[in-house]
Amino acid sequence: MTAITVDGLTKKFGDVTAVDDLTFTVDSGELFGLLGPNGAGKSTLIKMLVTLLQPTAGTATVDGHDILTERGAVRDSIGIVFQEPALDEELTGAENLALHARMYGQPKAEREQRIEEILELVDLSDERDDLVEHYSGGMKRRLEIGRGLMHEPAVLFLDEPTVGLDARSRRDTWEYIQQMNEEAGISIVLTTHYIEEAEQLCDRVAIVDDGTIAALDTPDALKGSLGGDVVTLEVETDAAPLCERLERESWVAEYTETDGAIHVTLDTAESRVADLVRLADAADVQLSSIDLRKPNLESVFLSVTGSTLDERNAAGAGTGTGEATAVGEQPAESAEGIQ
Ligand SMILES: Nc1ncnc2c1ncn2[C@@H]1O[C@H](COP(=O)(O)OP(=O)(O)OP(=O)(O)O)[C@@H](O)[C@H]1O
């Protein structure tokens, strides 16, 4: 089943094309990541999918409902957690969830049971009656994610779910996101500019750059597209005899020789290090060091966009809107509020 279909979706702001003719699908139950630098167009895409922004062209369906013609049904089937915190700090955790449930018109009995389930899911049962102002950053984020799940949406949108969190809270939040995806079977679309987040968490990742999708696949397939791991052998003597032997090995995808080193591309390099050392011995070539590098999404980003994500983030700083629309604060183009 398909959770989301995106068909030629485009958004222009004056001369700026924030989202440029995107077409892709998200499967039901999938944890789908939009990875890209600040200003790539991720938030704009999400805002169109959750019906907060009107597309310039194209359309999409969410849980089978068209974002242009069935806005109410789309809104009933989604949960949203934006970058900007949208909790009432002067209420307790449980009260924040109750407020949300009342807005969705959940009956009291159902609401109370759901609040306890959600608090347990995000591990905040013991803090249910503490004021949110006393929560840590990670706890607030967990409560927000839980709140997005209160009305049992089919699809949950998370815009930069771990931005501003320390490394420990980030990892904890990843665990909760994964748990919700697996246990509640909910489809999740998240945006991130953290390589590791996309790599660790997502079933499939779309690399978004300048409003377009530069690559889309599972993290493993994206990394695999680079042709394998790279082992760099630094040599103290003439490399030629070793190159001759590498030429004959079927498990060597390719090798390049630079000054004092041979870079060998191959699959599952860790299982071939001993073979490489043996070949060097047999060729009578002295090695001074061996370095093994696995491709990561950073190298994929570099390969498909021509620059690193950090370079793009630095260049894009100030070009993005820098803020997400908080829940309830819809832009002028949106006719109705959304919670
Ligand atoms: N309301 C707006 N008016 C004019 N330009 C906008 C508006 N919203 C976004 N943009 C522009 O559209 C482009 C994409 O911005 P968007 O916020 O979608 O990127 P992003 O990938 O989500 O980055 P960030 O995480 O920094 O928000 C940027 O060039 C941005 O300046």
TrEMBL record:
Q: Which InterPro entries did the record assign?
A: AAA+_ATPase (IPR003593), ABC_transporter-like_ATP-bd (IPR003439), ABC_transporter-like_CS (IPR017871), DrrA (IPR005894), P-loop_NTPase (IPR027417)
GO BP annotations, alphabetical order: daunorubicin transport; doxorubicin transport
> Where does it reside?
Cell membrane
Q: What is the protein's membrane topology class?
A: Peripheral membrane protein
Q: SUPFAM superfamilies from the entry?
A: P-loop containing nucleoside triphosphate hydrolases
Disordered: annotated segments = 312-339
Protein known as: ABC transporter ATP-binding protein
What phylogenetic lineage does the species belong to? Archaea, Methanobacteriati, Methanobacteriota, Stenosarchaea group, Halobacteria
